[in-house]
């Protein structure tokens, strides 16, 4: 194996020098593990470093690897190539176009890939507080839930009510122009139902068990201590902006 590896390396170097190297197309097309936007210990003491490391480097990496396997299978099939080119966000919105033999893999691992990236970016060591005064998110929350406390009550009840492994979401419906709290099982994404994700909360036990054990309520309180309202507001503003462009 080592000899073969050295041969591949030497061939690539020689190829580059002579201009005949074939680029490693499959590896180059693989989606990378989305990076955390902060250090593994940045959310201490609310979310512990060990949980963050395992969650990102093991769980999120596994979803990434398995999604890449599904995409490689699609790229290798002339009838499915167009699906691989869609991009994972769009693919999750068109799961019915994925053949049954690959649909579960895309739904579970593609969902896991996207959901976790949204989740990491919803958290921040500079989070907590509340949506900015006069922000789009503050207005939308008041319109849909009456108040921030009203939203937190609905969101908390939904989060605690998720049976087994799943997610709790704050979503925006562009047709109804309202926010709603949604829950999904496993790695299902509300984008598959045409909703826009404003806040993603992972309520799989792997997200909190090392520190909070079975106490999901404690985990939820910890999340509110590091929730990045600015990121949530930025997502809503982008959705509203994009919807305006589509109307023009
Ligand atoms: Fe997770």
From TrEMBL:
Reactions that this protein is recorded to catalyse: 2 superoxide + 2 H(+) = H2O2 + O2
Function: Destroys radicals which are normally produced within the cells and which are toxic to biological systems.
EC nos: 1.15.1.1
Enzymatic class: oxidoreductase
PANTHER family cross-referenced by the UniProt entry: 37S RIBOSOMAL PROTEIN S26, MITOCHONDRIAL, SMALL RIBOSOMAL SUBUNIT PROTEIN MS42
The family this protein is said to belong to: Belongs to the iron/manganese superoxide dismutase family.
Every Manganese/iron superoxide dismutase N-terminal domain range: 33-124
Keywords: Iron, Metal-binding, Oxidoreductase, Signal
Domain Manganese/iron superoxide dismutase C-terminal: 135-234
Species the sequence originates in: Hondaea fermentalgiana
GO MF term set: metal ion binding; superoxide dismutase activity
Cofactor section: Fe cation
Signal peptide: 1-28
GO cellular component, one term: cytoplasm
A family per Pfam: Sod_Fe_C
The protein's name: Superoxide dismutase
Residues that bind Mn(2+): 55, 116, 202, 206
InterPro entries recorded: Mn/Fe_SOD, Mn/Fe_SOD_BS, Mn/Fe_SOD_C, Mn/Fe_SOD_N, Mn/Fe_SOD_N_sf, SOD_C_sf
């Amino acid at each position: 194996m080592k000899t073969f590896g050295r041969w591949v390396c030497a061939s690539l170097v020689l190829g580059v020098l002579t201009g005949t190297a074939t680029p490693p197309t499959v590896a180059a097309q693989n989606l990378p593990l989305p990076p955390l936007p902060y250090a593994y210990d940045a959310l201490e003491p609310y979310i512990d470093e060990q949980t963050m490391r395992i969650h990102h480097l093991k769980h999120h990496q596994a979803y990434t690897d398995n999604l890449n396997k599904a995409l490689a299978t699609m790229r290798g099939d002339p009838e499915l190539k167009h699906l691989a080119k869609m991009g994972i966000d769009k693919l999750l919105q068109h799961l019915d176009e994925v053949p049954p033999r690959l649909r579960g893999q895309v739904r579970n691992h593609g969902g896991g890939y996207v959901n976790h990236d949204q989740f990491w970016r919803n958290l921040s060591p500079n989070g907590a507080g509340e949506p900015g005064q006069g922000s789009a998110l503050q207005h939308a929350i008041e319109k849909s839930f009456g108040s921030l406390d009203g939203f937190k009550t609905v969101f908390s009840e939904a989060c605690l009510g998720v049976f087994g492994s799943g997610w709790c979401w704050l979503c925006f419906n562009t047709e109804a122009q309202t926010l709603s709290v949604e829950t999904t099982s496993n790695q299902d994404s509300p984008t598959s139902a045409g909703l826009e994700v404003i806040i993603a909360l992972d309520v799989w036990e792997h997200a909190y068990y090392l520190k909070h054990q079975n106490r999901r309520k404690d985990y939820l309180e910890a999340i509110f201590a590091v929730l990045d309202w600015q990121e949530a507001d930025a997502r809503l503003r982008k959705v509203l902006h994009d919807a305006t462009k589509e109307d023009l």
